[in-house]
Amino acid sequence: MIAEQIKLSSSVTAEKLNFVDTPTQEELTSGKTDQEGVSGSYKKAIFTKRHVSILAGTFALLIGAAYSVYLLQPQIEEMNMNRMDTLGGMILLIVGISLLLFRLGFLAYIAKLFFRYKPVASVSNEELPTCTVIVPAYNEGKLVYSTLQSLVNSSYPAEKLQLIAIDDGSKDDTWEWMQKAKKELGDRVSIYQQPHNQGKRHALYRGFNLGTGDVFVTVDSDSIVEEDTLRNLVSPFITNENCGAVAGNVRVLNNQKAIIPRMLNVSFVFSFEFIRSAQSVLGSVLCTPGALAGYRRNAVMNCLEEWMNQTFMGQPTDIGEDRAMTNMILKQGFHVMFQRNAYVLTNIPEKYSSLHKMFTRWERSNVRENLMMSKFAFKPFREGSRSGTRILLLNQWMGMITAYPLILMMFILLIAHPVLFISSTLLSILIFSSLPAFFYAKKYNITEAFWIYSYSIFYTFGLFWITPYAMATASRRGWLTRG
User: Fold this and answer.
1) What residue ranges define each of the domains in the chain, with the CATH number in brackets?
2) Predicted structure pTM score
């Protein structure tokens, strides 16, 4: 029973990665991005002695924990029997089992939806809409140059593609790299400079107002798109008149450079290619990621001023602009979809200090936007079935509502039964991390899939505090990693 309860408090997988916005240059320790190996970066698996040691230690812990739980089985049974003798223990047991059943039922529901998902194939050049791509940049240096190059190299018809890059008052050489791109690419790209740093939302707002395309696409300035990404991303707008926004498929670019990106790699694939595929079947992808997202022009214009002037607890909102836009488009009755065949590769923080700041920013935005979504999700906000959307939202709330009780329980168990608690937690990780591991192994690389187990341990014992902390500080402003 302890293992079941700990699983609820250590939701280490992709549902936590609601990808509110992608990391910036200041969240990275590596300043280089290039297009070499973009398509193959998920197939190669280069292991050093350090990598082997980490994975070996991971499985030694997990297997040792499983054996410990086996040895402690009499103690576990005695503990559960003692609980059943008290009202409080009985309530705790019932609540724990109920939450576990809810989570397992939700996972089964998502799996059923996943098997129904199919990405939309690219439409012909003649059918493709006019498209405005907006690239906001702040202190990205050479990364923005690589991003613009990858966009121009897209197989999208040049006469239908407007490319706008906006420097948001960078303090480094970002503007020089944008000028270099302009000099080389000529009329293919237009560059603009904000008078001072105003935030990503302001840069996007300027881009939306400058854009002339029937579809807007936003791409972060530390991201690389593949040749067919843009045409795949916008095709659902042609095939489905109810489609108001499309989320791209975000992958980790620097997954071979450091341990943290390598561990996060499997979770990102599971988050997008499993979770968002299922959400797409419902037409209710909860977040269109900043790294790559497409929006129908009129859907954006219908809510642009509300989005630009959004507040939370009386203060202007300066984070979570992509989740906010997604909510406002869903509220209009549009569907939000996911295109698995629209790939973008983006950098991920390589240090713990940057990672926890990024996760805190994401979680604060999730708290705010879950509140916003709750205001319309249980109303007739669109035609057709709305139950799936509501189930997705309820699952989001379940994770937040249970955050504080489960952390309290975790500390109580850690003090009262430290060996049993740690062993049960590690056994839970071994069991429940196997799904994303199997998913990644089947699609990409079996050896790389093992990193999800290391990441689960890392998250459970190193990042468990993110959600409760973000809930307690949801009203705080700031990007956290931008000076």
Assistant:
1) 2-17+36-115+395-472 (no CATH), 131-391 (3.90.550.10)
2) 0.89
